[in-house]
Amino acid sequence: MGSYFREKLHDPASRLVGMFVKFPTLETTEILASAGCDFIIIDMEHAPLSTDVVYGMITVAERSGMAALVRLRGHDTATANMFMDAGASGVLVPHCSPYKVARQLIGDMVFPPKGRRGAGGGGRATQWGIDGPDEYRRGGDRGVVRVPMIEDPEAVDDIDHILAVEGVDAAFIGQGDLTQTLGNRQQAQSLVDTALAACVARGVPAATTAYGDDVAARFQQGFKWLAIANDTGTFTRAVQERLALARAASE
Length: 251
Fold this sequence. Notes:
alpha/beta; TIM Barrel; single chain; 8-stranded parallel β-barrel
């Protein structure tokens, strides 16, 4: 069920765009789906979103044909599995490095014998059991994306090993965190290039942010999916622009 995001992501012709979402509202999710976003990343790491709110956002998004991915709050893989059982198209794991940590975290989200994820059929992921246990297993193996966030220098150092972990379906290269850690944007972009090259070589669809006029350049560089904005920033800029127009008209 849902958006079949993984299939779209691995389509050689696909170039997917979406947004980070921090507002705890179903309306925001519905608007983004209606506007044509391919996916949202529900940002539990940087916004105080409750489980119930995230669950509702997943439901609205996936029933609207827009993929809902959840950026976890830390390394809580039990919550990741719960949201995948609830029908999410995938999860992003922040600071998913070094390799041994990444292997453990991703393994927690993969069914045995290759991983340690527990069985939980009968939820939204199989339309409340209508699709049956075989579809639950298939969907849990190949119908979701488990996405390590490559946002630390050691993650780039270990990138080939991390991408080879069983269950890694895509990668998100966090240029903002790399820049913050290194304190130098040029050095950070060199690490972004290194990580992207490894993803392209292994056929792992890579994502990053493209908040300015760099969308075309990032796609040409080899990224397959891009977060082009976040809802709070978009709302803030729209309000500022509207107010500026109104103030100018009142002078």
